[in-house]
Amino acid sequence: MNEDKKTALLSSWIDEAAIITTVSHGRPDGDAAGSSAAMAGYLSACRGKDAEVLLPGPLPESAAFILDGTTNTTDRGDAALRLQRTDLLICLDFNTISRTEELEDLIRAYPGRKVLIDHHEDPEPDSFDLCFSDTRVSSTCELLYRILLAMPDINGDAGRIPAPSARALMAGMTTDTNNFANSVFPGTLRMASELLAAGVDRDDIIDKLYHSERPNRLAAMGDMLSERMKLLPCGAAVTVLPQAFYDRHGLQDGETEGFVNMPLAIKGIRLSVLAREDGPLFRVSIRSRRGTSARLLAKADFHGGGHEQASGGKILIPDDIPSPDSAEKYICDITARFLQQQDTAKN
Ligand code: 5GP
Ligand code: MN
Questions:
Q1: Nearest ligand, CA 93
Q2: 172: closest CA among 290, 54, 35, 273?
Q3: Helix, strand, or coil (residue 103)
């Protein structure tokens, strides 16, 4: 089915539903929040629906404003009650239901129609009744923008998208492109231009996202770069942040968001792997320059996946390593071997 037909079908399902709920992935980011808030805002303002956003966990502080004005919950009990009343469930910014983490069993058990709108590789179409999946966009926000434009009441006019939804779309696209540094397509700039023309205050979004750091986050960044980051001769940077690092700097888990990108600023570094201790495991974030696949490394060695240049996964204790102390050596060995294999395959 082409996208126009799918959009028409989604629109008819929206007509048939009174109560519509959205859900996004665990440890939600700006794109998760932006697509959720934009969809919910559209459904309530333009279609008169009772719309609510479910998120399996809190947002980073700098992205929390994106949900302003939307009804939302991170509470599992509330989510379970909401799903009992829901006529249509819209799943945003994840490819497999396992990424809804604490809510996974509730989402799997939901008996009604499930629609997926997402931009990750390898979606699980069998888990959904209707699937919008495109990896050639910056973000779920960009794909949702295209879908909203094709809705009969919006009819290609960005100015008809409700203002809070337009702002949420711009904010989510901005965080997923790292403020236009990666995954920018012609449609991404078109969307930015049309939303600006429609009156979105981008300066305010940038202030909220990037000019509202707490000083201790910057201090932690300095500590990470001077003490924790290891540069390998193969062109990789490996950074392990133990729980003690978070305690010392008074940081929450989400507050090291973006740290993994920094080593790529160093000439010759093509891969950055950052592991954060999180209770009984390490959560791994991987970023790469073009020509090196972050996705393959996450898939092969860290029980994860993601995009070509931005992916993630986990290190399990004791399955992968006997104790947290061995994390750094484990990642250095895996990463050096991975780059060597990639180089051999290319030559
Ligand atoms: P981040 O490093 O920002 O946590 O994640 C970057 C990207 O990696 C996400 O957008 C997502 O596509 C992917 N990702 C992160 N963690 C996991 C994971 O545990 N499993 C899979 N399959 N993908 C992940
Ligand atoms: Mn995304």
A1: 2
A2: 35
A3: helix
**What residue segments make up the domains of the chain, in order of their start?**
3-210, 215-346
Q: How far is the CA of 120 from the centre of ligand 1 (A)?
A: 10
Q: In this structure, which ligand is nearest to the CA of 298?
A: 1
Res 252: pLDDT: 82
Classify 335 as helix, strand or coil. helix
Residue 254: per-residue pLDDT: 77
| CA 113 – CA 88 distance, rounded (Å) | 5
Closest atom of ligand 1 to CA, residue 314 = 19
Confidence of residue 113 (pLDDT cuts 50, 70, 90): very high
Residue 261 Cα, ligand 2 centroid: separation in angstroms?
Answer: 16
Spell out which residues line ligand 1, taking CB within 6 angstroms. Answer: 120, 285, 304-307, 310-314
Q: CATH number for the 3-210 domain, one of 3.30.565.10, 3.30.1490.20, 3.90.1640.10, 3.30.1360.30?
A: 3.90.1640.10
Give the pLDDT band of residue 271 (cuts 50, 70, 90).
Answer: very high
The pTM (predicted TM-score) of the whole model is 0.92
Structure confidence by residue, pLDDT tens digits, 47-100: 999 999 999 999 988 999 999 999 999 999 999 999 999 999 999 999 999 999
Band (191; pLDDT cuts 50, 70, 90) = very high
Q: Is the dihedral of CA 335, 290, 99, 167 positive or negative?
A: positive
pLDDT at 243 over 90: yes
Residue 255: its pLDDT value, please?
84
Atom of ligand 1 nearest to the CA of 31: 10
User: Which residue reads 């202030």 in tokens?
Assistant: 207
C-alpha of residue 176 to centroid of ligand 2, in Å: 6
Q: Tell me the CATH architecture of domain 215-346.
A: Roll (3.10)
